[in-house]
Amino acid sequence: MNSRGYMLRLKPVFTENVWGGTRLKSDFGYDIPFARTGECWGIAAHPHGDNAILNPEFAGETLAGLWKKRPDLFGSLPGDRFPLLIKIIDAKDNLSIQVHPDDAYAAAHENGSLGKTECWYVLDCPPNAQLVIGHNAGTREELADMIHSGRWKDLLRYVPVKKGDLVPIPAGTVHAITAGMLVLETQQNSDITYRMYDYDRLMNGKPRQLHVQQCIDVVRVPAEPAESSVIHAQEMGENAWGKIYACGYFNVYRMNLDGQTTQQMDAPFVDVSIVDGEGELNGTKVRKGDHFILTDGYGQQNWSGKLLAIASTAERK
Ligand code: ZN
Hints:
- The chain has helices spanning 23-26, 63-69, 103-109, 140-148, 152-155, 212-218, and strands spanning 7-11, 13-21, 37-43, 45-46, 49-50, 52-53, 84-91, 97-99, 118-124, 130-135, 156-160, 165-169, 175-176, 181-188, 194-197, 202-203, 206-207, 231-232, 242-246, 251-263, 270-281, 284-287, 291-294, 301-313.
- By secondary structure, it is mostly beta strands.
- It has 2 domains: 7-232, Jelly Rolls (Sandwich); 242-313, Sandwich (Jelly Rolls), CATH 2.60.120.
- A hairpin with a 2-residue loop joins strand 21 (270-281) and strand 22.
- The mean pLDDT is 96.
- The chain binds zinc ion.
- Residues 98, 100, 118, 175 line the site of zinc ion.
């Protein structure tokens, strides 16, 4: 190990989704395995997807394995699982209307799993794009009533978004990514989704399973105001890491680089995804589609090039 720590380069994992498309290949150059590839898990250490580490000194290791063997690389954070999961999502079609539980509900009802707070950085979207964020029910009774009677038009709240917006989705927020969106998602390392409504779509001739009671249990009522549900991050982080979002689980940063900069972050680890352009970090070439982790004690980051990067960190414990 050199004095900088490691830049752990990761091999993404892909998922097949009924709503997925081919932009992960056409826009990002990934060798996608499915005709409908919905998600690239760029930084993942989950039983449903675990990145291989590409650095020769960690040949044969995965991120989940390294988390257990070398906690020092990740600030010796507590917990039996790497805390974050970073995805790029290609929604060719609408995703189901869904909600995720918080830690307490997941622990009690999902074998001690973590809950899921997530956020989306909008990489691309159609003109006049709208996302489902929140709902219009005033009470839990009204929420249950609207769900049971299928009054989706009245219940669901659509919020306009554009490229470069950051959309926080705390656990308990009704949400759906809509057709034509390309987003980078930063989330807790959990894969628990309660589906409220799936537009009555069929997959292999059958509707996908819904989780109506769980949805009624975990949805926050009333929803957060629509005005506070989108952060306009387009100008945040010019030639330096700019913090665009912070919650108890993670901090998210954006850097739009054109030239050179020297940066430093004190964090147990730094997840980095290059979402546009190319350049160098401490002499190593990086380009659009690369995902890597800077380990604890990495120190000074000397960046050059023309690129857009999104990073995330967890707090030291
Ligand atoms: Zn979600």
